Each structure stands twice: as structure tokens, then as C-alpha cells.
Amino acid sequence: MDETAPPTRRTGSGRGRASGRVGIRDVARDAGVSVATVSRVLADDGYPVSEASRRKVLESVARLNFVPNDLARGLSQDRTNTVGVIVPNLANLYYARVLLGVEEVAAQNGMSIIFCNTNHNLANRERDIKLLLQKRVDGIIICGSGTDYENSAGRLADGPAPFVVLGRNEKLDYPAVHADNRRAGYTATRHLVDLGHTRIAFLTGPERWSDGNDRVAGYKACLADHGLDFDPDLLIRCDFAEQDAYERMTQRGHAGMGFSACLAGNDRIALGAMAAAIDLGLRVPEDLAFVGFDNIATSLYMRPSLTTMDMPAQRMGAEGMRLMLRILAGEAVPSRTVFDAALLVRQSSGGLR
Amino acid sequence: MDETAPPTRRTGSGRGRASGRVGIRDVARDAGVSVATVSRVLADDGYPVSEASRRKVLESVARLNFVPNDLARGLSQDRTNTVGVIVPNLANLYYARVLLGVEEVAAQNGMSIIFCNTNHNLANRERDIKLLLQKRVDGIIICGSGTDYENSAGRLADGPAPFVVLGRNEKLDYPAVHADNRRAGYTATRHLVDLGHTRIAFLTGPERWSDGNDRVAGYKACLADHGLDFDPDLLIRCDFAEQDAYERMTQRGHAGMGFSACLAGNDRIALGAMAAAIDLGLRVPEDLAFVGFDNIATSLYMRPSLTTMDMPAQRMGAEGMRLMLRILAGEAVPSRTVFDAALLVRQSSGGLR
DNA sequence: AGCGCTATAGTAACCCGTTACTGTAGCGGT
DNA sequence: ACCGCTACAGTAACGGGTTACTATAGCGCT
Lengths: 353, 353
Hints:
Chains A, B: Keywords: DNA-binding, Transcription, Transcription regulation. Two copies of one chain form a homodimer. Chain A is an alpha/beta fold.
């Protein structure tokens, strides 16, 4: 009985966790077929399987409560049906809507998404990308425009995962989906000019925020087209949220406002600024008119309601995911997909007369 | 030379994709050590590795640009360092903040999260759970209270993944983190009673929404404690968002309001209702006072600002993830973790005199 | 010289679904 | 009878990191 099996056949070696989970081999044994047959039934591709086998397999799957292991599947197919989505700050409803759009299309196509929040921090983003690549996501969708992350190189990773950028980012050399912010800025300004305003302030976000910069560029262009001077004193910077805008506007009020209308870099800024104006005893829009950007859900229901540029966040997110799917399918996609923003005239600009 | 190698030795069989990716074996070859040594250097657990080997391995890893494959890691360790998070509707900032809290703690602990949005739909949730289990997440965090999903059984899956519930849900027999909504409802009502109101309406969400039901329960208890009758006519139902609340309130206004104060199931409902009241020509808070729940970001900056119960969404999300980590570490955790809500008195209730 | 330890390495068997290859019936055609 | 096909089914080699087990060298003691 001097067995000559290769070296020394171990019993429960390697990692050797019991696991308890039923695998495809258990199903095969239970159904009295081979693992290949089980796999084929589950894959349900064209491969011919007799009805008898199929039925036996499905019965065993149900009886044993078999749940296929996507890790193993991913390992052998080199596909995880998962994409990573990196967002700067989910507390901003704009990004929540972008994520929602991505998720919607992903779910419709059987894809899962791993979500990362960077807090506008470059180091976090790099950590997240590394993590996502380790997890072998099929692709990565990066949200957050431009110089939001200043040091970004042209390529984030040479890895095999395709990237899609949501937001304008010239430094990032990947297919991008973004709104025409310059045009939106122009349209918003034009609306105020048409209402007769000549001294129009722009309360925008940090300089590294390229969506904001584009909106400002449109604002300047519109002023120029209408023979109005751009006064640097009317370009006021604050951060992305209500509080800072409120404070800036309050200071400004005490120093003598010097303008009759105010564009805000986004609706949250508009909200803070408008609250400040009201608290200063100004009437909106009679004494000071406001226009925001984004059309967050609440902007329609505040009083006065906020005139705003509707940036199609959810649609952009959805389109980004659609692009990703096409890239994964091997199709060529446009390097730029630009959405137009719509002006929603409401009470805060006084344009409803 | 009649080789007696087992059967017939194939060359590139199995799936046989080239892959091109560098693996741990390439690193081992390059560094002149075994795969075990590479794995140990990367794991950096206690196992002794000589400095010389460690250096060689790290050099090769850098030179070859090696990215470990978490699928393979997960497969052999039966651990993915990933949890699934299921949320009913990300467009509600409340849930966005919950997700943010979860993400924050997850990131701090090297965990990733797979995000799913159900749109308050039970079938979607079941699909998502199945998907997450296939992906072998280490655990699942379910957000969305109670009978939000009516048919939920006591156990969602017998699988090995632990669940944590964010929100009160008696039908779901898992560790839960939720706010004391009954108490919050009581506190909010008490605030209005203290201000002298005797006819107080409650504009709440759908009946299946248990957080809302708990708030209503607190409202009723408070009325009773203060000798006020509960008038079913003052319990008005609408859905979760602004628009429906606006419409209900407008109808009501035309029919004769019949109350001097209004609690809203959440801030979005409050926003819609308040806009309706203002549009009806009522003064807030003089003619009609409002109190909301959630303390979404905009509630502080609308005018009048919204008195609301601050539900600590982000902290609850964070706590839920912390619980999950402890469960994964094998610790026992409390089956109920209850957070208290704080009353934030602002302009809409008239409590700021 | 011999024994026991510790420090370090290496080998190869896992984890589990997929799929390239290799059969083997059964059937029509000649 | 024999060839060629099609329809089905089974075997086993992947993919890539982990780790149980085995092995060797170096060192302190007796």
C-alpha cells in the first residue's frame, strides 16, 4: 500500500477555514450533476443544458439556499460589476443628486457602486482611488469639478480601470460630463441685466472651484456685452455653505452694499446671503435681488422663492454612469458631454411681475 | 520517457485570460523571495521577516507597481472589509447625512461601503440584499425606519452577514440605532403648548412610516397630559416631500384652517406647508406657527427660520457603523441605541420673543 | 557533539466559480 | 455499417493572495 501520491497529501491545509457556506460543488453533488452544469445553469448563457438538468440544479440551489460568491466570480472573470464613485461632499444636496443619478442607472444595469466621500481633500481622494483599484472595480467615476483638487495630475492611475469625470476638470484627461457653467453664468446675469440692474455682485466659492469660476466668467462676459464695467469689489468669495455666505453678506451690508442684485455661486450660498439681507432689513427682491445655481429641492419652497439656474445634477450623474457602461462595453465615447442649465424665474429676482 | 504525469497537462487552460496584471508571484520572482514572504511583508502582521527581505519586497512592489487583488484576498480570508448600506432615498438630506456618518467611520477604519438606494421600495431592498450577500459584504446596514417596508419579516436573511438597522423597526430583529421619536414628538408639541396653542395640527407622512408614527404618538401623549383633546381632523397625511405638503395645506387653508400651530413630520414637509401658509396670506408665526423635525441644513437660513427638532442623523449613521465594527470584531452590542433629539427654537414657532 | 529553540523561508493546498478541452450518446445520411 | 454532427456533460486548470506545515540555519547549553 505504498501510495505514491505526489508529495504529501494534506487534509485540511491551506487556509482551511471551514466556511460552512454551500458552494457550487455542494449544489452539483446534491443535484447529481457536474459543477460545470451548475455554473452553466446559473449563467444562463447560450450553452445547451437539458431541461432535466436545469430543473435538478435549480431545485438544489433553492433547497440548499445557495448564494453564488461574486468574489470568486470576479476573480475568474476579471469583472466585478462594481464601479467606484468618489464625491467631494455628500452633505451638499447637489452631489447627493449626482450620486442618485449614478446609482439609478447602475441599479438598472445590475451594477453596484462603492461610494467614497473625500471632504474636498486630495489625499483622501488618492487613498480612495487606491482602495477602489485594489477592490478591482470595473471603473471609477470622479465627481467634483476642476481645481477642486489642485494637484491632480493628468492621469490618476495607469491601472486598467477607466475613469469618468463628472464636472469640468481640464487637468484630468478623461471623458467628462459637465454643465455649461459659463453659459449658465451668462444667462443668470442676463436675467438681472434685463430687469434693469447695473450693479450686480457675485458671491462665489473658493478660487479652486472651477464650476464657480466658469460661472463668474459668464457673468463677466455678460457684463461686457452690455456695456457694464466689471467691478472686482463686487466679486465676493466665501466657502460653499450658508454660514460663511451669511457672514460675508452681513459684513458687506454694514459697509454699504453698493449693489442691487446678487448672484450666488450655488443655492446654499444664496440661501445664506438672502437670510442676511432680510436680517439687515432689506426687502427681497425690491432692495436686493438674488439668483442662485443648482435648484436644490428647497429653493422652490422658501419665501421669497429662489430664482436659480437648474443644473441637472441627477441627469448628469445618470449620463456619467451610462458613459461608463459604454466604455466597459468597449464603445468609444465623447470626451465631453455638456448639459445646459435652465433659468427658473421665481420670486427672489423680482422677475415674476 | 513515457511520462506518467497525472492526466494531460494543459498549458493555458481554465479561463486563461492573460490579465497582464502583476501578481504576488511576479513580485516574489523579482525580489528573489517566495510568495509567502511577499504576502507577509504586505500583511505586516507579527510574522517575523528579515529586514533584508522586507526591503527587497517593498522595492519590487514599488518598481512593478503591484496592486494587491482584494478579490483574491477576500476569497481566501472570507472577509471583504466592505459593508453594504441600504438607504430609502438619498434625495432626502436626512438620509444623505446618515450615509455621511456611516462613511466617515467606515473610512477611518479602512472599510468601504457599497451603497444602495431603494426608493422606499421593498422589492428593491430585497434585490439589494441579495446582491450584497453575493458580493460577500461583511455586514449590512439598513436605513429606513419601521413599516417603511411593510412586509419585512423578522430576519432578512439567514446568511452569515450581520445586520444593523438605522431607524426604529420592530419587525426587524437586529441591533438598531434610532432617535427617540416619541419623545421628540412630545417635546415639539410641548413647545407649542407652552406658547399657548390649543389647536395644534400634525402634518405627517404615510402611515407606514414608523418614525412619523412615533412622533405622532408623542404629540398625542403631550396633548393628553395637558388636557387637550386629540382631534383626528388635525392629523393630516401627506408624503415625504414639499410639494404634497404644500397642496394639502393649501386645500386646508381654503376649507378653514382651524388651528394656530402646525407640527410637520419632517423639515421638508414643514417647508412646503409654510410656503403654502405664506402664500395664503398668513403670517408665520403670528397667524400660524410651525415646528419641523430633522434640522436639515436649510432650515436655519430660511425666513422665518424653522423651529425644528434636531435629529442627529450623521451621529446615528456613525454609531451604526461603529456597532457594525464591534459586531464584526465579535463583541456583543446593545440591541437598542437611542439618541435624543434637541429642540432648536427659531422664528417659525414664535418662541424667540 | 548533540539537543532544543528561535528566526526565517519556502511549498503547495486551499477559497470557489468559470471555462477550455475532452468525451460520449444519439441521429440522419449514404 | 460507418461518418459526421449536434447536444450535453464532465474534468481539471486557472485567477491571485493566504497560511498550515515543513525545513534549514544559527545560537546557546550541557
